[in-house]
């Protein structure tokens, strides 16, 4: 496993790779305000052990990537959306299998629509369609999820690492499923805080504006896997079902007891083989 800083337009992005660069590439795209640590290293190794070259990265303003002052991002939502293609260019990878969670799933959809030659397959986790799906009636967040937006918790003391860890874990817990693994989340949050230039800057993601996607999900022409938790309070399962229905031939996998979260270890025995199958060489 190798971690390095990669120069892309407007930023240095911290990247870590697993496996043999000669194998088919999988690019993991994290959720909003999420450093790459939320893709657990053991999950990355499990994917790499199946003969894949796995790449994870810190979004701008997370982890060790370029960080702006909190409240003053120097980039747009377009930059976040273009960074996967920019990374592939910088790493000399012509085409990759994209695996995105939440916002990362939206970015993966946009990349497949607007840069189809760079995408070999899509795995979309805990996400929602980025373009309108005709006839779909998608429910809003549950009362539990809405409360997090209507009455958000106060910011922690950003100078107290353990207070930041507790804040991050509480945010994860609010959207996770009933079998939330708090010890694992604590360990990941501590890695995030330890590695981050400024954990407070991650909230800059909520301030940037994005343009509409140029195209529709009907334009997606690569093998697509949609993975969704049946206890997702932010995007109830109807979002995943509509997304799968909008992409011709997409496979829909519903995960019992999983909320709006990165795949927890308890379901890796389902998710990892599914990703290996969708990314298998033709």
Structure, described:
The chain starts with a strand and ends with a helix. The model has no long low-confidence stretch (mean pLDDT 96). The protein has helices at residues 41-48, 77-91, 103-114, 143-150, 161-175, 182-195, 237-246, 268-278, and strands at 2-8, 11-18, 25-29, 53-57, 96-101, 119-125, 224-229, 251-255. It has a single domain (2-278), classed as Rossmann fold (3-Layer(aba) Sandwich). The relative contact order is 0.17. Helix 1 links the parallel strand 3 and strand 4 (53-57). It contains eight helices and eight strands. An eight-stranded mixed sheet has the order 1-2-4-3-5-6-7-8, with helices on both faces. With 282 residues, it is an alpha/beta fold. InterPro entries: AB_hydrolase, AB_hydrolase_1, AB_hydrolase_fold.
What secondary-structure arrangement, pairings included, does this model have?
Blueprint: E1 2-8, E2 11-18, E3 25-29, H1 41-48, E4 53-57, H2 77-91, E5 96-101, H3 103-114, E6 119-125, H4 143-150, H5 161-175, H6 182-195, E7 224-229, H7 237-246, E8 251-255, H8 268-278
Parallel strand pairs: 3-4, 3-5, 5-6, 6-7, 7-8
Antiparallel strand pairs: 1-2, 2-4
Helix pairs in contact: 2-3, 5-6
Protein name: Alpha/beta fold hydrolase
Pfam family, one: Abhydrolase_1
Keywords: Hydrolase
């Amino acid at each position: 496993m190798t971690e390095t800083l990669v120069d892309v337009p407007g930023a240095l992005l911290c990247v870590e790779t697993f496996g043999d660069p000669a194998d088919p590439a999988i690019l993991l795209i994290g959720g909003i305000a999420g450093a790459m640590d939320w893709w657990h290293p053991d999950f990355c190794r499990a994917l790499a052990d199946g003969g894949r070259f796995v790449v994870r990265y810190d979004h701008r303003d997370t982890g060790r990537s370029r960080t702006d002052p909190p409240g003053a991002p120097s980039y747009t939502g377009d930059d976040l959306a273009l960074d996967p293609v920019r990374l592939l260019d910088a790493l000399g990878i012509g085409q990759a299998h994209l695996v995105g969670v939440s916002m990362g799933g939206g970015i993966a959809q946009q990349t497949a629509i607007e840069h189809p030659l760079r995408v070999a397959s899509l795995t979309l986790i805990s996400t929602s369609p980025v373009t309108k799906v005709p006839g779909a009636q998608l429910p809003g967040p549950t009362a539990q999820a809405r409360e997090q937006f209507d009455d958000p918790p106060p910011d922690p003391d950003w100078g107290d690492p353990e207070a930041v860890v507790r804040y991050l874990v509480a945010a994860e817990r609010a959207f996770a499923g009933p079998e939330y693994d708090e010890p694992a989340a604590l360990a990941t949050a501590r890695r995030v805080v330890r590695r981050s230039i400024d954990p407070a800057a991650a909230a800059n993601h909520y301030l940037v504006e994005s343009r509409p996607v140029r195209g529709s999900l009907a334009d997606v022409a690569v093998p697509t896997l949609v993975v969704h938790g049946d206890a997702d309070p932010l995007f109830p399962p109807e979002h995943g079902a509509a997304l799968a229905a909008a992409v011709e031939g997409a496979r829909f996998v519903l995960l019992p007891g999983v909320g709006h979260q990165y795949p927890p270890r308890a379901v890796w025995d389902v998710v990892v083989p599914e990703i290996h199958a969708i990314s298998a060489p033709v």
